[in-house]
Amino acid sequence: MKSVVIAVRVSLLFMVVCGLIYPLATTGVAQVLFPKQANGSLIESGGVVVGSELLAQGFESPKLFHPRESAAKYDPTASSGSNRAVASSDYAAELANKIAALKEENPTLTDIPADLVTVSGSGFDPDLSLEGAKAQVPRISAATGVSVGDLNGLIDRLSKTRQFGILGEPRVNVTELNSELLKQVKL
């Protein structure tokens, strides 16, 4: 009986420490040291939250930049990749269809960046390569009337370099890019 009482006390102690004190302490420290990140790295436009820097959103309009496709259909509760093998004939056919659709939407496109036709591993990659963003510039310019130079300048201004100078590739956040574009063009 003494062992049961000790086990219950220890369990209650750990529930309070691990389930209450520790989460409150880490949340408080995060709010003080990293408030933007602790609150979801939200992107605001005109005082309205339009998305997060961390999660991709689907944009269908020909006047906006399109992100990488999401196998989870941009649903944050259903993170997943496509789990398709690159040697699969189904995958090859799917890529051929995506390339054809991309060329139809962007008729001047000659070089196709891989991130415009492949699915993000997590399904929520918010960033696009600079090549992927710039490949969409002629379509957006024709649809919005914004000059190619201004769109390329916007991409360059919002681009991010390699993390710590060595990790990843130069990239641009599509939600942030579209938010800035919408400030210039009324859709």
TrEMBL record:
Q: Where is the signal peptide?
A: none
Q: Name one GO cellular component term.
A: plasma membrane
Q: How does it sit in the membrane?
A: Single-pass membrane protein
Q: Drop me one GO molecular function for this one.
A: ATP binding
Q: Which UniProt keywords apply?
A: ATP-binding, Cell membrane, Ion transport, Membrane, Nucleotide-binding, Potassium, Potassium transport, Transmembrane, Transmembrane helix, Transport
Q: Which domain of life is it from?
A: Bacteria
Segments passing through the bilayer: none
Q: Which InterPro entries match?
A: KdpC (IPR003820)
Main location group? membrane
Give start-end ranges for the coiled-coil region(s): none
State the similarity comment: Belongs to the KdpC family.
Q: Which HAMAP family match?
A: KdpC
PANTHER family registered for this protein in UniProt: POTASSIUM-TRANSPORTING ATPASE C CHAIN, POTASSIUM-TRANSPORTING ATPASE KDPC SUBUNIT
Function as written in the Swiss-Prot or TrEMBL entry = Part of the high-affinity ATP-driven potassium transport (or Kdp) system, which catalyzes the hydrolysis of ATP coupled with the electrogenic transport of potassium into the cytoplasm. This subunit acts as a catalytic chaperone that increases the ATP-binding affinity of the ATP-hydrolyzing subunit KdpB by the formation of a transient KdpB/KdpC/ATP ternary complex.
Q: Under what name is this protein listed?
A: Potassium-transporting ATPase KdpC subunit
